[in-house]
Amino acid sequence: VQLQASGGGLVQAGSSLRLSCAAPGLTFSTYSVGWFRQAPGKEREFVACIFRSGGRTYYTDSVKGRFTTSRDSAKNTVYLQMNSLKPEDTAVYYCAAGSRMILGVIRREDAYDYWGQGTLVTVSS
To answer: Would you say residue 51 has pLDDT above 90?
Structure first.
């Protein structure tokens, strides 16, 4: 199963983008979904996570107050709304799904079972 991330693009600083993560063949509501990003020349890093139960969300400090992740179970899709984008948000963004997520491992890539191919977000200054 491969997740499908989309919605990336080239925007100016201060703009907004909404990324989508779809999961053909997967019942997304039974998975916690994480967002990661990899900037040029850097390691992939955790961005956000939405738990399957209760919809709790968690964010890395650098995006708190600007990014929001949510899910639409009817569309089997998870979103990452990104507002007030900064040039340092430029990266390839990935979504990932995990069936046995606990708070202590949401930042670990090996805690996720399925990954998407990534979508590029470029923020110009």
So the answer is: yes
